[in-house]
Amino acid sequence: MKRHTYSRRSAFTLLEMMLVVMIIGLLIGMGLHYTAGKLDQAKQVRVRADLQQIKTNLMMYQAANGFYPTTEQGLKALVQKPETDPKPRNWHQLDDQVPRDPWDIEYVYRYPGKHNPKEYDIFSAGPDRNPETDEDNIGNWEPATN
């Protein structure tokens, strides 16, 4: 008569699997903790870069036409020729679309500006997406950081 001998199988036990899942969870948690503030910081850096590009386009618009777009014409004047006064004489397209900030809201443009009365204000409404709350707005009136 042949006896069955049970050899130890090379399989993982439930305890070992739970330990691996717990270690993976801890590593993910640590990664999120260390990168959490970096996303907000990256969005602010992108806003500053976008503002520089928009300022350059507005400078080109002003150089070609002698004036900046009105608040009503807005940044759309960089994409499509305005039909309202003052109408630009030497208009050409300076952007493909009206620029949007990292929170997917169009940048706010005001001419004359509240912060820059002799020029314009251009800013992102920030994470709260509300241009009326100045606390988190990022605009051309702030000195660039970094």
From TrEMBL:
It is a single-pass membrane protein. It comes from Chthoniobacter flavus Ellin428. GO terms for biological process: protein secretion by the type II secretion system. Residues 119-146 are annotated as: Disordered. InterPro entries: Bac_GSPG_pilin, N_methyl_site, Pilin-like, T2SS_protein-GspG_C, Type2_sec_GspG. This is Type II secretion system core protein G. GO terms for cellular component: plasma membrane; type II protein secretion system complex. The lineage of its organism: Bacteria, Pseudomonadati, Verrucomicrobiota, Spartobacteria, Chthoniobacterales. It is found in: Cell inner membrane. The chain crosses the membrane at residues 12-34.
